């Protein structure tokens, strides 16, 4: 097939959204564009389907979700190949991405009942005549809006939590990766053919906006901070709750007692995997003075072996190439040095690995999300300076620490939702750990117990089981009973701690 389009740029033609291979410009596939009416219709279908899906209960949903998990495993190569064609990522990276998606699906399916199921809570003495019950009820329909950089795991994370909690889902994938999104909905329909429990709607940003205003019970958004704010504003119109998974500028700290070679290997992978287009990608390193030189040498040696077109895929979104080039040029103009790559590393549609040192903290390469295979390494006096610099950002998504004696203490001090110690990005692969950021990286959590609760409302129920001894909540209480209540209160809670 010949290249007929600008590589990576989606094309709209006769009501179809055509996505193109970012390396070659070949068509990667096409999906029909949904207008506002179609989005509302999908949500209405999802509302009807939610009644059936909720009725299946935790066990019924678990079986079906695990069937989908197994389908993903059986067809892992097909899905990874599709992500390669549409997003440009190496097939092996696609395989790893599906692996993480399978982990989240499996965990959510198996643990939803324990985390969200009805339970009794312990009686409190002041209302001893009432039993307390707690359960977590689904919202109904959850809208999932996803990005292009990890078109499989980023939607599957919230989809797993939302479906396991008893919601149905309408997914709006990125305009750059709609075919992967449609593949997810189509394969789910193969294992759950009865009702449209997971649907996809397609188009540009306005379709995401329409989903926010369509009557969904909650929106799970993953994408840039700027779009996250627009999504919140659209959801605010109807007080629709949101979870926002936004960008990051994650830092890795290398302490004096770190295994320097392991730190360099993890830094290179954390920064360059998926061509650096990773929300939790390592973009900055702060290495303490005693290990700095060795660390820089090891990173340059390892990153220098990576080749564009093999380990480093193309930049998926063509306009990102200018941002990456601007950041590198700004770093160099402000006094930074390229010890690998540099401004000439940007050769559309690829960017070769670039390692920058002595970059001032004011540079856009340090302050803004670069989303390319670039890494800054900054020498710091000690771990305190490293933590202060790592935290001096509006973002707060993930992070990493290499070291022995103080590594966990340093990890706790990082202002972020997740930190990997002696590894990078590891937390995204554990189904039982929550995932999400602070500050401009967003709020709310997907994955793990918190991620399941994100897609349900806590519901409190009290059941009277005896007559009140101290009737407080009635107009029929007497002054003597009120005195008894005060006495009981003093007895129970009146003593100084
Ligand atoms: P965008 O914010 O550009 O888009 C994200 C999604 O929002 C897309 O589906 C997009 O549709 C849609 N959208 C755009 N405008 C609106 C709107 N006004 N209302 C509703 N939806 C809208 O992000 P990218 O796709 O470029 O993804 C990259 C970003 O995602 C990076 O900042 C990265 O850090 C972040 N990210 C965060 C993750 C996390 O878990 N914290 C994980 C992965 C990525 P369309 O594509 O059609 O414009």
Automatic annotation (TrEMBL):
The keyword Oxidoreductase applies. Residues 19-461 form the Aldehyde dehydrogenase domain. The active site is at 245, 279. One of its GO terms (molecular function) is oxidoreductase activity, acting on the aldehyde or oxo group of donors, NAD or NADP as acceptor. Keywords: Oxidoreductase. GO terms for biological process: aldehyde metabolic process. Belongs to the aldehyde dehydrogenase family. This is Aldehyde dehydrogenase. It comes from Actinoplanes missouriensis (strain ATCC 14538 / DSM 43046 / CBS 188.64 / JCM 3121 / NBRC 102363 / NCIMB 12654 / NRRL B-3342 / UNCC 431).
